[in-house]
C-alpha cells in the first residue's frame, strides 16, 4: 500500500506539472481512500473505465483525459454525475494528467508513440514543448509508412499527400493537435502526424507538399498513461491494470 498523496506528489514531480499552462486540472480530480494498493489506468475517465476500476478493486483510476475542462459547464449532472457517483461509492481516487503527460520525454504520449512506431527522436519544440521532430530509421514512401502505422496502432490512418513521396524527417504530436500543422511545415519536415484532422489541413498538405496523417486521438494516446501507471506501480510496489476501449475517434 502507498499513500494517495505520496503517489500524486511523485507524479507531479516526475511530470513537472507546474511548468504547464493547461485547460484541465492535473492531479487529483475526485478524492477516494487515503491509501492505494491497486491502480487502474485508462486514456479517458469514461463510465466504462470507471466501472472497470470498480470491478478490478482499484483504489485509483489514473487517466490522461479527466472529467473537468475549462470549456465545459461546472455542474455535476447527467453523465458526469453518474461517473463521479460510482467513484465515490467505491472510494476510488481519480487523477488525470493532460499536457504534462503528452510532453514527458520518456513516459509521455509523444515519446511512447515514437517508441511504439520505431522513430528516432531529435528534439521537442513548439508550444510548451508539445511537438516532436525526428526521423524514420529507414525512409519509406508515404504509402509504406501508413501501412506500418496501421499495423502498429490497429486502425487505418487518414492521410493527405503524395503516396509515392519518400518520408524521412517527421514531426508529431498526439491527440487533437492538428492546429500545429503550419508550425511543423515551417520546420521543413516531410510529414506531420497527429490524432485528428480538420478541414484546413487538407488544403495545407496539398499546397505545401508536406503530408498530413491523422492516426486517431485515442489510438495515438494509448501508451503514455500505460507507461505512467507502470512507473507508479514499480516505484511504489503496487498492482496495476489497464483498460482500453475500441474508440475510433
What global shape is seen?
Answer: elongated
First and last CA, distance: 36 Å
Strand order of the largest sheet: 7-8-10-11-12-9
Average per-residue pLDDT, rounded, comes to: 98
- Amount of helix: 25-40%
**What would the CATH topology of the largest domain be?**
Udp-n-acetylmuramoylalanyl-d-glutamate--2,6- Diaminopimelate Ligase, Chain: A, domain 1
Number of helices: 10
Q: Give the ordered list of helices and strands.
A: EHEEEHEHEHHEEHEEHEHEHHE
Number of domains: 2
Describe the structure.
- It is elongated, with a radius of gyration of 19 Å.
- It has two domains: 2-97, Udp-n-acetylmuramoylalanyl-d-glutamate--2,6- Diaminopimelate Ligase, Chain: A, domain 1 (3-Layer(aba) Sandwich), CATH 3.40.1390.30; 104-220, NIF3 (NGG1p interacting factor 3)-like (Udp-n-acetylmuramoylalanyl-d-glutamate--2,6- Diaminopimelate Ligase, Chain: A, domain 1), CATH 3.40.1390.
- It contains ten helices and 13 strands.
- The chain is of the alpha/beta class.
- Strand 7 (119-125) and strand 8 (131-141) form a beta hairpin.
- The protein starts with a strand and ends in a 6-residue tail after the last strand.
- Helices cover 37% and strands 27% of the residues.
- The chain has helices at residues 4-15, 47-55, 78-89, 99-103, 109-117, 142-153, 181-185, 199-208, 217-220, 222-236; strands at 2-3, 27-30, 35-36, 38-44, 60-65, 93-96, 119-125, 131-141, 158-160, 166-172, 191-194, 211-214, 239-243.
- The model has no long low-confidence stretch (mean pLDDT 98).
- Strands 7-8-10-11-12-9 form a six-stranded mixed β-sheet.
